[in-house]
Design a protein that fits this description.
mainly alpha; two-stranded antiparallel ribbon; 2 strands; elongated
Length: 123
Amino acid sequence: MPTSVIPPGWPRDLPPAASAEFEHKVAGWLLDRAPMNLRGDPIWRQEPRALALVTRLHAEATVVGLRSAYSSARRELSDVVDSDHLPGVMSGLERAGAEAVSTVREVKMVEEALAGRTWRRKL
């Protein structure tokens, strides 16, 4: 009989979807990754699937924005950033981009879990 498992890439700081804790923590976890101004509106805690959608779309837009920034940073910043600092700026953009991609992947998994998906391991 298959058993429920935590899929690879599941957020480390969120309990598994099959746990009782998940339901209590998922909205806060999503709000930590959503646009900050959503935090004050209680509807998002009442509608975690809607919050997951908005959070995923926001995270995907962040990836697009960071990719655009990375592709134009050297050209647009060459006159305003010290040339010794430019590699650090580029590295910072790379790290932020990698984090944003990871956030998209994690939010997608949470969104799937909220929609009822379960991950199983064959015994």
